[in-house]
Amino acid sequence: MKNIYGDIVLNSKKIIVQLNMINEKLEKYIAMQTNIKRQLLENFVWGISKGLGISVGIVILGTVLVLVLKELVTIPVIGKYIAQIIDMVEVYLSQ
Q: Alpha-carbon torsion 78, 84, 90, 93, what sign?
């Protein structure tokens, strides 16, 4: 019987330690959520980084698309239409 009670006590102590860790994390989260200035700053930085990431991604994908389209110009059937699209893009970019 002593072994069972010893295991229960040991498991209880482990649970208490884990609950204390969860409580500390929860207190930090609540403190972070109540700090309006920090929230505004974090959301602002997140928005800027997201906007920059989207912009860079679109530029890279657009460049790859234009390079692929330039290679497809040699195909007789589609080449004429793709050449027109490329010309329109180049005219737009030169403005």
A: negative
- Which two three-digit tokens encode residue 84? 């027109």
Q: What pTM was computed for the model?
A: 0.48
Taking phi over 0 as left and psi of -120 to 50 as alpha, with beta for the rest, 35 belongs to: beta
Residue 71, helix vs strand vs coil: helix
Q: Which residues contact 73 (CB under 8 A, 6 or more apart)?
A: 79, 82, 83, 86
Which residues, 6 or more positions from 70, have their beta carbon under 8 angstroms from its beta carbon?
82, 86
Residue 21 parent element (H or E): helix 2-34
67-77: per-residue pLDDT in tens? 887 777 666 67
The encoded tokens of residue 74 equal 């040699």
